[in-house]
């Protein structure tokens, strides 16, 4: 069965869904699940919503890019966000760039439209992702 989801199986044979395969970021040969990075970022009390996507990187092929919506009246620097992530996940999974926005595009069903966040970064590139 093909669902488009990526997962892991533990020693007892239980399968855990980790992320959508189309949202996986490949950077320097490492697979990075966007959901893992998003979970780290949304632990910050200043963050209302975030989306993590892969954007082109000439050295690594792709890099982690976070798009973040802050709660009303809150402030957060990109540096503080990345420092927080480094306490929770491996350094290579942490965002290399952070973009703060007022909103993230959503479908009528309320799902994040990550392709709209990726597209501008991949314009004019031979390799496209998602």
UniProtKB/TrEMBL annotation:
Superkingdom: Bacteria
Pfam families named among the record's database cross-references: AMP-binding_C (PF13193)
Keywords recorded for this protein, A-Z: Fatty acid metabolism, Ligase, Lipid metabolism
Transmembrane intervals: none
GO molecular function: ligase activity
Domain called AMP-binding enzyme C-terminal: residue spans: 36-111
GO biological process: fatty acid metabolic process
InterPro entries named in the record: AMP-bd_C (IPR025110), AMP-bd_C_sf (IPR045851), ANL_N_sf (IPR042099)
Family to which this protein belongs: Belongs to the ATP-dependent AMP-binding enzyme family.
Protein's name in the database: AMP-binding protein
Organism per entry: Variovorax paradoxus
């Amino acid at each position: 069965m093909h669902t488009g989801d990526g997962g892991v199986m533990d020693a007892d044979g239980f399968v855990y869904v980790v992320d959508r395969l189309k949202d996986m970021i490949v950077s320097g040969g490492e697979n990075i699940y966007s959901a893992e990075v998003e979970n780290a970022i949304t632990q910050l009390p200043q963050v209302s919503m975030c989306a993590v996507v892969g954007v082109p990187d000439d050295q690594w092929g792709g890099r982690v890019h976070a798009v973040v919506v802050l709660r009303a009246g809150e402030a957060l620097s990109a540096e503080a966000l990345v420092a927080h992530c480094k306490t929770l996940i491996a350094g290579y999974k942490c965002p290399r760039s952070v973009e703060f926005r007022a909103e993230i595009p959503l479908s009528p069903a309320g799902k994040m439209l990550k392709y709209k966040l990726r597209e501008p970064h991949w314009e004019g590139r031979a390799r496209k992702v998602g």
